[in-house]
Amino acid sequence: MTSKKALLIDISLCIGCNACQEGCKTENKLAAGEEKSLSPTAYTALSEHDGVFVRHLCQHCETPTCASVCPVSAFTKLAEGPVIYDANKCIGCRYCMQACPFHVPRYEWKSTKPRVQKCIFCASRVTKGLQTACADACPTGATKFGDRDELLLLASERISAKPAGYVHKIYGQKEVGGTSVFYISPRPFEELGFDTKLGDSPMPLLTLSALSKVPNVIGVGSVLLAGIWWITNRRGEVQRHEAAQNRDSVPQRREPK
Amino acid sequence: MKRVTLPRVTIWRVIAAALITAGAFAGIARFTLGLGATTNLSDQFPWGLWIGFDFIGIGLAAAGFTIVAAVHLFHVDEYEPIVRPAILTAFIGYLLVVLVLVIDLGRPEHFWHPLVMWNPHSVMFEITWCVILYTTVLSLEFAPIVLEKFHMHAQIKWIHTFSLPFMILGVLLSTLHQSSFGSLYLIVPNRLHPLWYSPLLPVLFFISCIASGISMVIVETLLLSRNGRTLLTTKLRANLAKITAVMLAVYLVVRFQDLVSRGAARYLFTLTYHSIAFYAEILIGFVIPFVLLLVERIRTSRRGLYVASLMVLAGFAANRMNTAITGLESWPTRTYFPSLLEILITLGIAAVGFSAFTLMAHYLPIFEPEPAPDPGMPWNHGPAPEEAD
User: Fold this and answer.
1) Contact B124 A71 (CB under 8 A)
2) How far is A156 from chain B (nearest CA, A)?
3) DSSP code for B84
4) Domain count of chain B?
5) Per-residue pLDDT for chain B (389 aa), expressed as one digit of tens each?
6) Looking at the domain assignment, is residue A143 inside a domain?
């Protein structure tokens, strides 16, 4: 059985060398050159907050919002963890970009055949048993690749070994139902630009609550509407029948005059 | 039969022709240069003016299903004279929305993918199917008008044999996807401002679309009841206005009850970018027209009805734009305003819609059904005898 893979990003270890982005660009054949934010040619990027560096990339959610909202199933969550994208299916509605709780997908706005671009967790490497290019490139171990369960264990071990050095939280463990990218941080996550109000339940449940009512609306609605048609139609028939009878009886009443 | 002559040049025709031409060139630019070069859409605002236009267009097209349901399913026969204008509105509305959607798509040549690549978990998937199916239903409801023009009564009769289930289907599809436009935003609780985000979005979208659909019918009735033609009596028009008022009241109760129960009412007490947008929407589109429509003198006057109904439509448009754009902005750092080309394409398409309506109303039997030799159909009783006003 394939085990679920993940990345652990220890913000306290990151020195901002950008080797992860370079390694990523080489592996995924993206245009070279350092970029400070996510873009169609940068699946990962570092942002600096007073000397602390935060790596941004697709979180590869356990229940991916992008995969749930895509009308053509262009996103797929693999058993190993990666959420991958098929540009041949994509119609370009950009609902994934609107819906992603982490604001990750980027669009090739300049192209006339645009694709959605985001980290794919080096799916072809990971399915072969290799680690991601970014983890491979990281010189300090700030990005570590491994089994999801083991990394969660490692993260809590690091926090308990240095309780004063870390915020007591593994970001990504529970957010929107859990992700495949975990962060541990020496500074409160809110200060580093993380959204800490996302909640623990997967986003797709929000739309599922509406979509699950569709069959009921169709079933109850069609019976109701047909019923109303039947009753009002019958009422009209009766009215016309009575009107016709009255018309027939009118001359008889008038005859005595 | 009217003799075809050269079209007269009027100011409206000149404006329409100019807008359509400008829109066509803007459209060519969009397809040759790409979305990035021609629009203000971005990774932060992947959806913009065009999505707003879709919401508004579909909302106005609600005229179709509400009137079809009232006349053909509920047998409120007095409104028979506006069924055809309403169906025409809806049909044109949907065709335009499909056109805008295709322009908006990044890969328009893949537009057919949702037909074969399914994802029933996606609201967008549901909407795509509803739009496709309902446009089909609308073309069937519209077909008899065209067939009548060419005296193909046998074909009309054939369509009528299965029109009841299709009309029911049409009403259901409309219900579903008018509300699904609201459901689209259920998944962005972290982004959409609490004044608009609500688990009740689908319900609110549905209630408001009925108010806007009926207001659209009222406006059309007023516009078309000129030059000696009267589509509806003053009383029937006033009754439509009463329904609008009721829907507005229901909407206001649900909306404010929801705001309070979610704890979002506190945003109403500070003057911000968002609260101003909220007040503009709710006052212009809901509170003021509701109060106006309570007054019988306004319901029965042409000008009063015009003003109140146009306010409902404006407020409805504001509500959809606020949900689609304003509520996702954060003033002044993250804002979106459409590019000139986006606006030109939108105006051009709107002009196509108005022109198409005018042309079809002129050449097709929209107002005076041509005599048809097929009595006995439940929808062909014609208007019931007028009660004394």
Assistant:
1) yes
2) 28
3) H
4) 1
5) 556 677 778 888 899 999 999 999 999 999 999 999 999 999 999 999 999 999 999 998 998 899 999 998 998 888 988 899 999 999 999 999 999 999 999 999 999 999 999 999 999 999 999 999 999 999 998 988 888 888 888 888 888 888 888 889 999 999 998 999 999 999 999 999 999 999 999 999 999 999 999 999 999 888 887 767 778 888 899 999 999 999 999 999 999 999 999 999 999 999 999 999 999 999 999 999 999 999 999 999 989 999 999 999 999 999 999 999 999 998 878 899 999 999 999 999 999 999 999 888 888 888 766 555 444 444 444 444 443 33
6) yes
| Residue pair A225/B171 in contact by the 8 Å Cβ criterion | yes
Q: At what angle do helices B302-324 and B201-224 cross, to 10 degrees?
A: 150
Given a contact cutoff of 8 angstroms between Cβ atoms, the answer to whether A45 and A37 are in contact is yes
In a domain, B287, yes or no: yes
Is A73 touching B (CB cutoff 8 A)? yes
Nearest Cα to Cα of residue B36 among A37, A43, A107, A88 = A107
- Please answer yes or no on whether B187 and A69 come within 8 Å at the CB atom: yes
Domain housing A85: 5-202
DSSP reduced 3-state for B56:
helix
Tokens found for residue B279: 């007040």
User: Which ipTM was obtained for this model?
Assistant: 0.87
Alpha helices (H) in chain B, listed in sequence order: 11-33, 35-38, 49-60, 62-68, 83-104, 113-116, 123-149, 153-161, 163-183, 201-224, 234-261, 273-282, 288-294, 296-299, 302-324, 340-363
Residue B165 lies in a domain: yes
In a 3-state reduction of DSSP, which class is residue A144? strand
Question: Which chain A residue lies closest to B112 (C-alpha atoms)?
Answer: A91
Interface test with B, best of A77, A94, A246 (most B CBs within 10 A): A94
Is A143 found in the same domain as A76?
yes
* Residue keyed to tokens 């207001």: B215
Q: Coil, strand, or helix at residue A141? A: coil
Residue ranges making up the domain that contains B179: 41-337
Of A72, A210, A228, the CB nearest to B73: A228
pTM of the predicted protein model: 0.89
Is residue B12 included in any domain, yes or no?
no
Q: Which of A65, A74, A214 sits opposite B176 (nearest CB)?
A: A214
